[in-house]
Amino acid sequence: MTGGTLAEDFQQRLTQIAEATEKTLDHLLGPSPLPGETLRPPRFLEAMRYASLGGGKRLRPFLLVETARLFGIEGEGVLRAASALEMIHCYSLVHDDLPALDNDDLRRGRPTTHKAYDEATAILVGDGLLTYAFDVLADPATHKDPAIRIELVLALARAAGVGGMVGGQVLDIEAEQAKTPHTAEAVIELQSMKTGALLHYAVIAGAIFAGVSKQTREALSAYGQALGAAFQVADDILDVEADTEALGKKAGKDADRNKATLVASLGLEAARKRRDTLSAEAIAALDSFPEGREAHILKEAARFAATRKN
Fold first, then answer.
1. CA–CA distances in Å: residue 310 to residues 8, 63, 141, 240, 250
2. Which residues, given as ranges, of the chain have pLDDT below 50?
3. How many Å apart are CA 299 and CA 280, to the nearest integer?
4. H-type helices in 53-101, by residue range?
5. 6-307 is classed in which CATH architecture?
6. In 69, 77, 176, 200, which residue has its Cα 20 to 30 A from 104's Cα atom?
7. Residue 255 near residue 264 (C-beta atoms within 8 A)
8. pLDDT the model gives residue 210
9. What pLDDT is recorded for position 181?
10. Pick from 138, 190, 146, 196: which is nearest to 169 by CA?
11. 271 close to 40: Cβ distance less than 8 angstroms
């Protein structure tokens, strides 16, 4: 702690971890081929770097690093895992922005990858980031214990795949074509997969590094699930209340595309109440194990997830 307010301490840690993640990604996405690689095509590598560097809150890396740090685990391996997770997140944004999906021209205040380069390159950038993320996790440089690396890889595959983020994206596309109103239950399930799964993984990955007890892992899991849900409800609300400049992407698109959101299914005021309730649930989950009482920065992250402006 720096002696500032909790919000100031949180913002400082968020910035520090974002910078450390940026530095690690910059290194991982360097021009020199790794053993087993032939070469890294320059324009393609430039596009991968465009999609990954120089933007974003880096909330997922933050959650992974801070959860591990709660148990005294820090260092290069944790940052590598955090960067691998961010690669998955960045790949998902590149693919989501494509014309066949959300068809967005703006991301993080600048042209989306397929606009800055072209659609074929953007598809391959996503493929490259997805594949490289598992390369990074499987490398002994991330953790010397192969059992830890396997657990990190398996958990991320489950969070990012057919029953997680990708499956949630499928449900999101299907929901756009629905002729009947979206139920809150269906929206909550969709969002727990599309957005919540990677945020939950970030917390669980930190627990994997630390080798915590089953009870502690369950508490952290409850925290991660509630925070992930709060983050997405806040996103739904921001799409209604914020403008394009603040968001760094087109505002108001959810209603235009018949997106499955809790604002649409519950109404704006009820969505706000659910967001705040979920944030409080995340904070309470951390109080259920001894170390969690010292998790002030993680608790502030749950507040941030609910109150952020972009």
1. 18, 18, 34, 12, 12
2. none
3. 9
4. 59-70, 76-96
5. Orthogonal Bundle (1.10)
6. 200
7. yes
8. 95
9. 79
10. 190
11. no
Predicted TM-score (pTM) of this structure: 0.93
Q: Would you say 249 and 108 are in contact if contact means Cβ atoms under 8 Å apart?
A: yes
Query: Mean pLDDT in the chain?
Result: 92
Give 158's contacts (C-beta < 8 A, 6+ positions apart). 164
What tokens were used for 181? 């109103």
Per residue in 56-92, pLDDT (tens digit) is 899 999 999 999 999 999 999 999 999 999 999 999 9
Beta strands in the chain (DSSP E): 106-107, 110-111
Token output for 37: 């690689």
CA distance 274 to 260: 16
**pLDDT confidence of residue 40:** 98
Distance, CA of 265 to chain centre: 24
Cα(294)–Cα(278) distance, integer angstroms: 20
Distance of CA 106 to the CA centre of its chain: 18
Domain boundaries, the chain: 6-307
Encode burial over 90-120: b for 16+ CB neighbours within 10 A, e otherwise.
Answer: bbbbbbbbbeeebebeebbeeebbbeebeee
Residues 227, 211 contacting (CB under 8 angstroms): no
Which of 283, 282, 261 shows the shortest CA–CA distance to 272? Answer: 261
Reported as a single tens digit per residue, the pLDDT across 264-282 is 889 999 999 999 999 999 9
